[in-house]
Amino acid sequence: MLRADAQRNLDRLKAAALEVFRERGLGSPLEEIAKRAGVSVGTLYNRFGSREALIDAVIPDLMAANVERIRLDANAATDPWERVERYFNGLLEMQIADPAVSDAVARAYEGSPDVSAVCAAALDEGARLLDAVRTGDPSFTRDDLGALLVANSALIATGGADAARRIVAVLLAGLRPA
């Protein structure tokens, strides 16, 4: 159990990290996070030890909540193909809206088993939805969906959200059952 002041510092650091990462991505300066939390960089490192540990403390829950919201929205559709479209487009819009999520997807954050697990679950759900309507290209796999998400992250990072949307639209058109 942490002292009350230590718990407050921890809570402020996590909130500040989430804000800064969501604004600027996972490569944001840790000094900016500490400043926003009102603590020293030393306090940040004493509490988390590394950037990866800080990412692990805040990003997996954010990603899991977003993916669950997208999954629920997709599965609310009655048409199986609409489920696929909602899911793929929902993942893309999540990446566009949130640089932290896009960065985590792009890196599949190797240093983070929790981020990797959320990404794996998202890919599994996409593959499951696609398998339910499979008459399109049978060679498109779960790993291809992962590659698409990584490519989208790169496009989004260079200001190409519209290009990422076009790629998803073309991909979905190619996979759509005849």
From TrEMBL:
Segments forming domain HTH tetR-type: 7-66
Alphabetical UniProt keywords: DNA-binding, Transcription, Transcription regulation
Pfam families: TetR_N (PF00440)
DNA-binding region(s) from the entry: 29-48
Keyword Glycosyltransferase: no
Alphabetical list of Gene3D superfamilies matching this protein: Tetracycline Repressor, domain 2 (1.10.357.10)
GO molecular function annotations of the record: DNA-binding transcription factor activity; transcription cis-regulatory region binding
Any coiled-coil regions, as ranges: none
Top-level division of the source organism's lineage: Bacteria
Name recorded for this polypeptide: TetR/AcrR family transcriptional regulator
